[in-house]
Amino acid sequence: MADTENSDDQRIVFLHGFNQDQAVRIMRAVKQVTDDPAGIAFSMSTPNNIEWTVKDLISEVREEHEYMRKNPPGGQEKGQ
User: Fold this and answer.
1) H or E segment at 42?
2) Mind listing the pLDDT tens digit of every residue in the chain (80 residues)?
3) Cα separation, 58 vs 64, whole angstroms
4) CB 3.0-4.6 Å disulfide test: which of 2, 48, 52, 73 passes with 56?
């Protein structure tokens, strides 16, 4: 896992117990009320991550979030 403790933006919303539709609505609502919605990392509980420590969860979610910000799905394909 990457060292995200020195990062300025550690914001994470971790959702547990919501179905997919509810989770999407929550994410949209959170993004509407913040100045920098792209900086917020969202995650839902899974059978794997539910057992992690909070520190490990934050580190993993932020690492994945930063990777996706730098490598958006289909990012290179759009301009070609």
Assistant:
1) strand 41-44
2) 444 444 567 899 999 999 999 999 999 999 999 999 999 999 999 999 999 999 999 999 999 999 999 999 886 544 44
3) 10
4) 52
Give me the amino acid identity at 26.
Answer: I
pTM of the predicted model over 0.85: no
Q: Which of 48, 73, 70 is nearest to 60 (CA)?
A: 48
Give the residue extent of every domain in the chain: 12-72
Contacts (Cβ under 8 Å, ≥6 apart) of 17: 45
List the beta strands (DSSP E) in 1-80.
12-15, 41-44
